[in-house]
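Title: Prediction job returns without error message
Component: structure pipeline
Severity: low
Priority: P3
Assignee: unassigned

Description:
Job completed but the reporter wants confirmation the result is attached to the right record. Sequence as submitted:
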Amino acid sequence: MALILDAFTTTANTVVTADTGAPPGSLPTPAIVVPKDPEMPFINGNGTYIFSPFDGPGSTVTFVSTYSIPAALLPVFTVGLPITAFFAYAADETATSTVTLEAINLLGIVVLTVPLITGLSNGGNKQNVAIGSGDTLLLATLGPLGSVQFTVTTTVTAPTAAPYPFGAAGEYLGELRVHSLAVV
């Protein structure tokens, strides 16, 4: 199976949907780039960590990242389209992630929702790179899909130590890789 998506969490594709340190009426808001703690791992050479602009010791923040595979990379008709997703992330400090696939028709309506990865945890260790995978088979696609969208939801609880020596109480970086049949 060919790699059809390889993307990281960024300020462009990730929003903060919940934050215990956010003032009322300020959410959702885009994530921001934060300084990388030297102890945090790189993921596939990337060290660009993000977090909430309302960063604070012990805050619990929920991020939602959205990745789309355009219709041009999907077959028009298929009896079965295998899709495998791999998600790897690191976070400071305790984090849990889920990955969901949504098939969207040409009208923009979600016609199928499939949980691919649930409860993926880093075990509370900021040096862990948590890795999970999930696969599915989209059956009987009788017409063209508008796109396939992956939604990654991650909740991170930042360390409670204050002042935090690296400028940000929490950090989060994830990478989603999706494999499927190549469409040429």
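Comment from assignee: result matches the submitted record. Residues 3 and 105 are 22 Å apart (CA to CA).
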